[in-house]
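Q: Give me the 3D complex with flavin-adenine dinucleotide.
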Amino acid sequence: MPDFLTEEQSELRQQAESLAQQISEMEMDSSDPKKIQLQIREKSKAAGIFHLTQPIEYGGLGGTAIELTIARESLAIKNVGHLPGIFGPNPGLLSKASKEMKQKFLDPYLAGEIESGFGFTEPSDAQRHTWAKPEGEELVINGAKSYVTGGSNADFINTLVEVEDMGPAMILIETSRPGVELKTAFSSVDGSHHASFTFSNVRVPKSHVIGEAGTGMTRALEQVNSVRMAIAANCIGLNQFVCDLVADTLKSTNTDPNHETRVKFGRMRTHAFAARSSVYRTARLIEAGENCVNEIMASKILASESIAELTDIAIQVVGGEALIESHPLASIFRRVRATRLAEGPTDTLHANISRGCLDLNLGRI
Ligand SMILES: Cc1cc2nc3c(=O)[nH]c(=O)nc-3n(C[C@H](O)[C@H](O)[C@H](O)COP(=O)(O)OP(=O)(O)OC[C@H]3O[C@@H](n4cnc5c(N)ncnc54)[C@H](O)[C@@H]3O)c2cc1C
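A: Here is the predicted complex, encoded as structure tokens.
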């Protein structure tokens, strides 16, 4: 597929492909995940990929939307994009924090000394969304968050909180503060780890509000949008990995694939092409500074739904062997299921796209 990449972008693709090749050839001792992560990190730094996620003012490369898409897709094409250590920690919301907060939290976070979580999702039985009451120079926070990835190891959680008389705000809450309780730690089928938290009269200084109070939802959505694009780029790379795997399987069998299998394979490639075109177009729109919240939702939907469908078809074509735990399709099947829910379930995103058009008269799609 033509990508109309510049020379620099083509070079970046080659760097990411070479890194992906090196990682895929690594011997991984699964009993020592920390060691694997460190090895991958060193390779990624040497390949010029690690610092893409970090802004130039923090010593990073400040990768653009299209550069990040190229890198993530290239790594996923070799089915290694999900491994930890490839990309450096990203300031995310904390880039909007005050100088004092940046010194206290962002610098040690970027140095890998402390860890963070993102508290957005409320428990399904919440009577009221997590809220805060101003008291003097402090905010008193009550409520709960149900699905904080990396929560068990997090030193602080960037939490969406409804502040009385001000509106939604992103507030940095240290997990060591009195009143913060880790209720449950759990893992999901994709292999990631999460925790649920409750907040009972947790007191934080008002300086812990990230950016202006009242802009919390916008701030949270900025972060959500960049993760949606990361998910989408990873899914389109996996689409190609799965298509390549099925092509190899079909070519290696002695019998010519029947018509039905050919139709299935053509359908896989068509859906992969549609998702990929959408993700690259959206990355270019972001790079042009356009408001593309709808395009990001559509790209995340197309990419996550297509990889789910492609993996399912691929398993059917390859047969029972594909369900053996050590087979790449078995692992992809588990990992990609989460992408249709995380950062917004497909139906919710579809409903939001409708709302943009029908109620707000906004957006291009
Ligand atoms: C791997 C993984 C990592 C995650 N990490 C985090 C994290 O770090 N921080 C965090 O805060 N959350 C995290 N989440 C939670 C995730 O954001 C939520 O699961 C997701 O937003 C869906 O919310 P929910 O689970 O409450 O389901 P619900 O919102 O209750 O949705 C359930 C069903 O109802 C449908 N539905 C709901 N509302 C609508 C609507 N308006 N229109 C149409 N259909 C609708 C949905 O499509 C879906 O089918 C993670 C989830 C996963 C799977």
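A quick observation: The beta strands are 116-119, 131-135, 138-149, 156-163, 167-174, 180-187, 193-205, 209-210.
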